Amino acid sequence: AALLTLPRNRGAATYAQTLQNIPETQVTTLDNGLRVASEESNQPTCTVGVWIGVGSRYENEKNNGAGYFLEHLAFKGTKKRPGTAFEKEVESMGAHLSGYTSREQTAYYIKALSKDMPKVVELLGDIVQNCALEESQIEKERGVILQELKELDSNMTDVTFDYLHATAYQGTPLARTVEGTTENIRHMTRADLASYVDTHFKAPRMVLAAAGGISHKELVDAAKQHFSGVPFAYKEDAVPALPPCRFTGSEIRARDDGLPFAHIAVAVEGPGWADPDNIVLNVANAVMGRYDRTFGGGKNQSSRLATLAVEHNLCHSFQTFNTSYSDTGLFGFHFVCDRLSIDDMMFCAQEEWMRLCTSTTESEVKRAKNYLRNAMVAQLDGTTPVCENIGSHLLQYGRRIPLEEWDARIAAVDARMVREVCSKYIYDKCPAIAAVGPIEQLLDYNRLRSAMYWIRF
């Protein structure tokens, strides 16, 4: 038996060794304020992208949806490369293009062979500085986006979370959707899109991130060559002040008895990205767990709430979330259930919240920490998620936080910290609630608010 295990032990690296052997993230700031960051590895491919600190939070009622519209136009050609020429150049490299827009970030990235990194940087620089915004492409994508908006309306989970933002941050930019309104998309002009780019696409608000088989020096040289034309913003307006957002404990109910299931999301105000309480809240979410009827295990779930869901047939699924922004966040849970199970599921979920505040155990926290470590490492498998991690971290924290540091922060959490931090954010707080579907059984807001604390003698 000892001989059989010898080769396996010799070739295996411990978890701690793996964290320590991750390549260092190198960061260089160019003269115009653009940050260039990379993680070098022996991969034959690389992912290079531009992360920009702008999203729907920076939009107003008139141009809400401009960032999402630009995402659709980003890879449709530039002033130097008309649509067909751009597509042929990308196809000749066998590259994969993608992008996304969120409430505070916009990203455009390309995955290609490592040897093609200079060409990828050139294409990204052209996209950011010289997007064509042709009238014909604008009209074409306008129709595509309007169709997408119709499809999004049929996704009840997305609708519920949009309603949750609308009620939690009512009257502020975070209440608006990333995609914008149908009315805005119909009337968005080329001038509106060009103004959005001129206002927000500034070098100090950008990160050129790369991961894979590339050289940091070569990446910086390519960035100097192709991103030098990105406008520099003076120090005082390099990162414009975030539009203020205020959390409000309130609710939105969209009752529709024609829908088969009720979708309900409940959240309290959470901390911003850089707040150390986020790690503790993520551990608390792992204690609460998640569940779907397709999961195996039956009543033997590690999560107490999942066990109750199985035993009493409370819901089809539930998930916890900790959505952070620069200065605020939403910490809560979302579940999908039958119309006659709403009250029971809500009661059990709120009871679980109260238990997190008052009686979380060390064994639960230990299991949750291991789950969190596994999720942390698993999400960085491949050059694309690593590249996204680099770009997002530099915008959110000003640096890339190493996995070893994340692991140390997780290790420092204990049951007492979970109880204290959960009490700080959950106990006796006014929640924001969004409910869609056959929700007649959902109790009055005041009754739900009264379940946010326990009367103890």
TrEMBL record:
GO molecular-function term, one example from the UniProt record: metal ion binding
Membrane-protein topology: Peripheral membrane protein
Main location: mitochondrion
Residues that span the membrane, as ranges: none
Peptidase M16 N-terminal domain ranges (all copies): 35-181
Coiled-coil residue spans: none
Keywords, sorted A to Z: Acetylation, Electron transport, Membrane, Mitochondrion, Mitochondrion inner membrane, Phosphoprotein, Respiratory chain, Transit peptide, Transport
One matching Pfam family: Peptidase_M16
GO CC annotation terms, alphabetical: mitochondrial inner membrane; protein-containing complex
Keyword Aminoacyl-tRNA synthetase: no
Localization: Mitochondrion inner membrane
Assembly and binders: Component of the ubiquinol-cytochrome c oxidoreductase (cytochrome b-c1 complex, complex III, CIII), a multisubunit enzyme composed of 11 subunits. The complex is composed of 3 respiratory subunits cytochrome b, cytochrome c1 and Rieske protein UQCRFS1, 2 core protein subunits UQCRC1/QCR1 and UQCRC2/QCR2, and 6 low-molecular weight protein subunits UQCRH/QCR6, UQCRB/QCR7, UQCRQ/QCR8, UQCR10/QCR9, UQCR11/QCR10 and subunit 9, the cleavage product of Rieske protein UQCRFS1.
Entry's family note: Belongs to the peptidase M16 family. UQCRC1/QCR1 subfamily.
Protein name, UniProt field: Cytochrome b-c1 complex subunit 1, mitochondrial
Organism: Syrrhaptes paradoxus
Record gene name: Uqcrc1
